[in-house]
Amino acid sequence: MQQLxxxxxxxxxxxxxxxxxxxxxxxxxxxxxxxxxxxxxxxLISESTFDIPGNHASVAIMHGAGIKLELLHIPGGKRxxxxxxxxxxxxxxxxxKAVVFQxxxxxxxxxxxxxxxxxxxxxxxxxxxxxxxxxxIEDIDGNKINIFQKNTxx
Length: 154
Prior knowledge:
By secondary structure, the protein is mainly beta. The protein has 2 helices and 8 strands, in the order βαββββαβββ. The protein has helices spanning 29-40, 106-115; strands at 22-25, 43-52, 55-64, 67-73, 99-103, 119-127, 131-138, 144-149. It has a 4-stranded mixed beta sheet, covered by helices on one side. A 4-stranded mixed beta sheet has the order 5-8-7-6, covered by helices on one side. The protein is globular. The model has no long low-confidence stretch (mean pLDDT 88).
């Protein structure tokens, strides 16, 4: 009989819940791996394929910014334009909005992103009045990436 009791100092069930990774579907896996490597300094950990009903999917697992990122490609994937509406209209559709990172100095980070050719949706803008200083970029598929300056977040 499986015991559900925990050892002293160990968490079980939802008490052990922790972030594993973030996942995006992408139009071109190789180009997306190159973009996340070049622009955000992620490192490729592994690539593989797996079967899905009637097709197959390719996946690249990357690491950077203290997280794992899972990039998935399915041949014939469909883009739903409403999910990629220009900001701030992207907030109208229910669903994913952005991956959010933080840095010590957003001005320096923004300069580095600009030098790498990142597509800015806004640069060094305050959200929530005079709080939450951030820059927002998008990857090659239009996935939004918001980067906040640490000492300005709530």
